Amino acid sequence: MDMNDGIARALASEKLRAVYAIWKSVAAGRIAPRRAELTPTQLRSTTSCTFVVEAIEGGADFRFGFAGDKVMQFLERRCAQPTVAGMRGDPFFDVADDLFRACIANRKPLVSGPKQTHYKGREHLERQVLLLPLSEDGVTVTGLLGAFDTWQLGTNVHKREPVLAD
């Protein structure tokens, strides 16, 4: 991993670094790979911490697709609504919505955290989230590949603002 890369430097998790390296290799200099270009075989060692989000109407809303085992264990249940808009008002999903929008608007990878999570019942944890654009046409971000890791609160130095790729 190129440690001159701001995203790579910001990642506290080896699993997130592995997802980023796979995404970067498949993107091959483009703004993003197509969703179909990222295969289960490529992501095998990191599948449990990954998720996919589909951008609806250019990012007006978001629909969750695949979520790995670690993501589902963290959430403890399926989301109450099929889209993020249906869960607005919950601080955890409000932050998710803001991060998804920032990644899509900037058309660049984004890292948030490590910072304390605001998911109800998981406040004793800190989390780091990596969001990576996906594009079916090479111009518009049509979805996101996400990766997520957690630690006991106080494990890492917390970062206030998300880091965007250079």
Structure report:
- The chain is of the alpha+beta class and 166 residues long.
- The protein has one domain (6-29, 45-164): PAS domain (Beta-Lactamase).
- It is 28% helix and 26% strand.
- The chain has 5 helices and 6 strands; from the N terminus they run αααββααββββ.
- The protein has helices spanning 6-10, 14-27, 40-43, 69-75, 91-106, and strands at 50-56, 61-67, 110-116, 125-134, 143-152, 163-164.
- β3 (110-116) and β4 (125-134) form a beta hairpin.
- It is globular and about 40 Å long.
Could you write a compact summary of the structure shown?
With 166 residues, the chain is of the alpha+beta class. It is 28% helix and 26% strand.
Low-confidence stretches: none
Give the C-level CATH assignment: Alpha Beta
How are the strands ordered across the major sheet?
A: 2-1-5-4-3-6
Q: Which bin fits the share of residues in helices? A: 25-40%
- CA-atom Rg in angstroms: 15 Å
Determine the N-to-C terminus distance: 15 Å
For the largest beta-sheet, the strand count, sense and barrel status come to: 6 strands, antiparallel
Mean pLDDT level: 90
Number of discrete helical segments = 5
Counting helices, strands and paired strands, the structural category is: alpha+beta
User: Looking at the chains present, what oligomeric state does this protein adopt?
Assistant: single chain
Return the CATH architecture: 2-Layer Sandwich
Annotation, overall tally of beta strands: 6
- Beta-strand portion reads 25-35%
CATH topology type: Beta-Lactamase
- The count of domains is 1
